[in-house]
Each structure stands twice: as structure tokens, then as C-alpha cells.
Amino acid sequence: MATNIIASAQTKQANPFGLVYENAIIKNVSGEVNIHPVTYKLNGISIAANIYTPANYDPAKSYPAVVVAHPNGGVKEQTAGLYAQHLAESGYITIAADAAYQGASGGEPRNVDKPMFRIEDIRGMADYITQYAGVDATRLGVLGICGGGGYTLKAAQTDKRFKAVATLSMFNSGVVRRNGFMNSGVATIQQRLQQASDARALEASKGEVRYVGGDTKMTDEMADKLPFDLYREGYYYYSKTHAHPNASFKYTMSSLLDLMEFDAATNMDLINQPLLMMAGSKADTYYMTDNAFNLATGTKEKELFLIPGATHIQTYYVPEYVALAMGKLNTFFGKNLVGRDNSK
Fold first, then answer.
1. How confident is the chain (344 residues) per 10-residue block, as mean pLDDT?
2. Where are the domains of the chain?
3. What is the pTM of this model?
4. Less CB within 10 Å around the terminal CB: N or C of the chain?
């Protein structure tokens, strides 16, 4: 397991922008796709983001734009940046930002992971990018990856600035935090809610923060024995092949009070925009995409695209699977944001 994944990863190189994905930008070159690190305030919190501009970007011209939301535990320098860069290569101005309380963004305590904040992060990216020079605010799309996909569905249900909505390997964070992956934790729901309640009380009374997922030091041998591809391959992606110092699966235990009542698939009928949901054909998370897609009864244009042979994590970085996802995204955004098939 470890050998195969590590062997297929890119050769790591020092990147001045902190990017850890394959063929990442290492310097801004005139006439090519460029990256622009920015910071902005969202509800008083400093947000760290990267803007990607297309080749020969001219701020006096008009461009469609796409907001890209990163996975749970991830940061903008990983797969969100990969897809943001590829979309910029296709002519879009894109933004990938670290969630508030996470990555290089501000907010205390660290690693709060509440759905309302993650949804607001997506709307905040829309606020910022639609004011960026050259962006046509009437041609704004959104792509959410993993947990960012679930939050993207929720944001797009009510925020009609998003004219086209896409997800990749969507992960329904609330349902999994409540029921466990594939309903493996249903028996402990009340116990975990009590722990989260106690953690909230401790924060309020003593300022002490308890965390979930930060205590166990995983080894390759432990990872290989995990029962799900998502977690086995996720370990190698986040800890080995695409590790970034700002990425962390740790989150405040009190966040579970909000996570465990959240379901990204409720009110899916509110999405009336064109909808594209993509998942690996071998992804053990596919059931989440399938459920949400079937509930999206309010849109006249929706498509479910399975990436042949891909698992959840492999859609983040494996070139052949990324190429398939990008081909579909270029067609989808090309039709709905550009007015033509923008596929290569």
C-alpha cells in the first residue's frame, strides 16, 4: 500500500508559494498562469488565499471566475490549488482560500471546524473574487472538494451568485461526524455528544480546548490496517506525498455540537443552478454524492460523473483522474460560465 502510493507521488521540490502539488507554479512568468497570494478580512478574521490568473491576464478584460473550496483538514496549497491552477490554465480567474481558524488564516482557537464557518468561507471567497480586477461577477462558478464539496452544496442552495455548482468527491461532514463513516459510529452518538458538550463547557469555564484527531501518532503499519480506502490513502496523501505543515485533521471537540446536527444533503431542492457532481467509481465515499445528487430535484440541469477506477483520494492528485475531472469541469463551466464548450 505505502510503496504504491509513495511511488506514484510527485517528486517534492521546495516551492516559494508553499504549493505541494505536481507541476505547481514556482515563479510568476509573464504570459503564463500566475499566482497571487492575498489576505482579506471575513467577519473580522484574516483569511489567507491564493488567486490564480490566466495566461496573458489583462485586468481590463472580462473573465469568468471559480471559487475552489478545500477538503476537510486540507489547505489551499494541496488539491484545491491544483484544480484552481488547472482552471486558470483554462481561462478562469480562480481563488482557493484556507478556511477560517485553519491553515494560514486567522481565528482562535485553532482548528475550529463548524459548518456555518466553512459555508461562510465560500461566500467570503465569492465576495473577494467578484471584486477582483477583470472578474465578471455574473459568471461565477464554485468547485468544492471533499468536505468543501458538502459545504459548497449548502452555500449554493441560497447564494445565487454562483451560476454553476460542481463538487468532486463530496464528503458530507456532518453525517459522518454524527453516524461515523458508513454508519460505523451510530452506537456512540450520545456518548460523543456528551463529550462535545463537556468540551464546550471546559472552553467557557477555563479556556481549555479539547481536540479530536490530534492525539494518535499514525504509522504506516497502522494506516495500512484502517478499514476504509479514504482513511488509508488519506494518511499517505496528507502525511507523506502531499504533506503541508498547515494541514491538520485535528479539530476542536466542541465543533461536534454543530457538525453532528449538520447534513449537506438537506434542502438540495433549493439548488436551481446547473449542477455537476463527480466521484471516483471506486470511492468508498460515493454514497454521499449519490444521495445528494438524487435529492437535487430543483435544477433542470444536473450530471453525475464517475471517474473510472478512481478512489476518493486519487481524484486529488493522480494525473489521469485529474485530467478526466478537468475535462468534465471545462465542459461544464465552459457551457455555463463562458457560453461554449471550454474543454481541451
1. 41 82 98 98 98 98 98 97 98 98 98 98 98 98 98 98 98 96 94 98 97 83 92 95 95 98 98 98 97 98 98 98 98 91 50
2. 2-338
3. 0.95
4. C
